[in-house]
Fold:
Amino acid sequence: MPVDVIYKTSATATGGGRDGHARSDDGAVDVNLVVPKEMGGPGGVGANPEKLFAAGYSACFLGAMRAVSSKVGVKVPADATVNAEVGFGPRSEGGYGITADLTITLPGVDRADAQKLVETAHQVCPYSNATRNNLDVGLTIV
Structure:
């Protein structure tokens, strides 16, 4: 499906990949990458692709809820949050895959309204669209 691109950015990874460094073209993102102990690495202070994906997905989904709020008639509270938990592991078909579970907190929003808002945001969020039919994304409203 074609995309009418209105914004582009880039980042470059150096070093060993998961145990190297990544920097965006403008320097706004500049992170050391560390392999977690659970994946056989040293762990410690640093990011990894899953942390970066979780940060991006949670921010994007919160933005998508704000973008569709007037369309569905549900105001997103100022203290709303989206937590993205991203998992990594081997796939039964071979190779590796990721999982994603979003926990959405909408204080003071009626349950039915929250469900309508979340479902609509899930249809427009670029991360949701990119992952659709590639991995199951869990959506939990608390």
In short: The chain has a mean pLDDT of 96.
